[in-house]
Amino acid sequence: MASAGDVFDHGRHGTSLAQVQEAKTSRSPPKPLLVAAPCDAGEYPVVVFLHGYLANNYFYSQLLQHVASHGFIVVAPQLYTFSGHDTTGEIHSAAAVIDWLADGGLSSSLPPNVRPNLTAVSISGHSRGGKVAFALALGHGRTSLPLAALIAVDPVDGMAPGRQTPPPILTYREASLRVPAPVMVIGTGLGALRPPCAPLGVSHAEFYRECAAPACHLVARDYGHTDMMDDVTGGAKGLCKSGGARAPMRRFVGGAMVAFLEKWVEGRPEWLDGIRERPEVAPVVLSAVEFRDAGTRIHGVMLPA
User: Which residue ranges make up each domain of the chain?
Assistant: First the structure.
């Protein structure tokens, strides 16, 4: 049996990375896409990944390929180039992409004999994209596919409590976010440091506190808000406090996503249970490993700094 640490390594599949352009045809996507997929023939679950504020989808290409190498098709739309305060347009654009997937538009953009399993879809997102993922899951945008799982990577709901981007998602009541699927929230220890790219009160800790079960929360102590991105991301790299080399953080986030999807989408809990029992297998130091199981309040372990 594979050990828990294996999930943080590249998976057994080779991967392809394809750009799919928006066009005015009935079969084209409503937004440009970056699609990471296994190269081996087979049918694979689909994950929609939503980029952070003013970021490009290709900033996450290595992270997406890590997830794809473990047997998932990852679809990352470019929701906008520039955007204002309100996230409503992004929510509806992401919903439109999911509807396009349901209509069978993805198949022509995949390697030969690779098929998407669209009985349900998982949604993930980083930063503001994590907030948009929550908004979709909570019904702020109508989609035609059931939700299998939700993964928010250092989600942010505005500049500070009381200064949330519309529509506000956080309610400041414990277990008030009743997402109709299991939720993973991944956080960073440096995200709230100056400049605070993930300010306290509107970031990962509050999102997790408000999640109803089942949910889990993993925090990388020594890494910042954009450290799961590729090494080359233009000006985005210097905007947030960083923990240094990004490769360990990419491996951690990609592996944590895979472990969660393996449990809740594929029915194989070994990797996630392994991280829960032995947090030291992660390639980064974790300052929080918390799980909220069905029928219980939050429990877990806060690891020493």
Answer: 4-296
Reply yes or no on whether 144 is catalytic: no
Active site residue 225: yes
What's the average model confidence in pLDDT over 268-273?
96
Answer yes or no: are the C-beta atoms of 62 and 90 closer than 8 Å: no
Measured CA to CA, the distance from residue 103 to residue 118 in angstroms comes to 10
Check residue 300 and give its pLDDT.
37
Q: Are 74 and 20 in contact (CB under 8 A)?
A: no
- pTM, whole model, 2 decimals? 0.94
Res 305 pLDDT > 50: no
Using CA atoms, how far residue 110 sits from 68, 74, 227, 254, 295, in Å, is 12, 11, 28, 21, 40
Options 6, 154, 157, 222, the catalytic residue: 154
Amino acid at 37: A
Q: Which residues contact 71 (CB under 8 A, 6 or more apart)?
A: 11, 13, 38, 42, 44, 45, 266
> Which value, to the nearest 10 degrees, does the dihedral of the CA atoms of residues 182, 124, 127, 96 take?
-120
Position 88 pLDDT exceeds 70: yes
175-191: average pLDDT: 97
CATH of 4-296, picked from 3.20.20.190, 3.30.43.10, 3.40.190.10, 3.40.50.1820, is 3.40.50.1820
Q: Does the annotation mark 154 as catalytic?
A: yes
Encode burial over 56-94: b for 16+ CB neighbours within 10 A, e otherwise. Answer: bbbbbbbbbbbbbbbbbbbbbbbbeeeeeeebeebbbbb
| 8 A C-beta contact, residue 68 and residue 38 | yes
**What was the pLDDT predicted at 296?**
43
From 51, 126, 204, 225, the catalytic residue: 225
Active-site residue, selected from the candidate residues 122, 124, 127, 242: 127
Q: How far apart are CA 37 and CA 71, in angstroms?
A: 8
Q: How confident is the model at residue 80 (pLDDT cuts 50, 70, 90)?
A: very high
